[in-house]
Amino acid sequence: MNQKQKELRFLVDVGVSKKVEQWLLKNEYNMKAVRDIDPRMDDAKILNIAVSENRMIITMDKDFGELVYNSGLAHCGVLLLRLEDAVADEKVVVMEKILTEHSDKLLNNFCVFQNGRLRIKREVKGQVIHFTERNR
């Protein structure tokens, strides 16, 4: 694990999968699971906890885009996995690839993984800059 990976702290939303949570812990990532705190927690509360603990949210819930962009709420980064039909093992493979190849670009950014691509929306002085990384 490189230094950038060690700096990452995650709050994993309920829908992601227990296997992803276990993989993160096994690989020594600093991770908390929403299912262990309150599985029925609403998204705004998840976002508040993530900000207060400087954690990036890993989720499959598109509502976080609404919270971050339309409501303008603060965040420490969101990784939205658009893997609706994926089984838990596939999600683990995707997470491993994202963290191995892109960990230096995730923190404080809104990231979406869909159709084999990672899109990262980075805010720089009030401007949103978009760039896409294709997973190889």
Task: Characterise this structure.
This protein is globular. Helix 2 crosses helix 6. About 4% of the residues have low confidence. Strands 2-1-3-4-5-6-7 form a 7-stranded mixed sheet, sandwiched between helices. It is 40% helix and 27% strand. By secondary structure, the protein is of the alpha/beta class. The chain has 6 helices and 7 strands; from the N terminus they run H-E-H-E-H-H-E-H-E-H-E-E-E. The two termini are 20 Å apart. The chain has one domain: 3-Layer(aba) Sandwich (Rossmann fold).
Question: What overall form do the CA principal axes indicate?
Answer: globular
> Helix/strand-derived class?
alpha/beta
Number of domains: 1
- How much of the sequence lies in strands comes to 25-35%
| Helix content range | 40-55%
Q: Count the helices. How many?
A: 6
Condensed summary:
The chain is α/β, with parallel strands linked by helices.
List keywords for this structure.
single chain, 136 residues, alpha/beta, Rossmann fold, 7-stranded mixed beta sheet, 6 helices, 7 strands, 27% strand
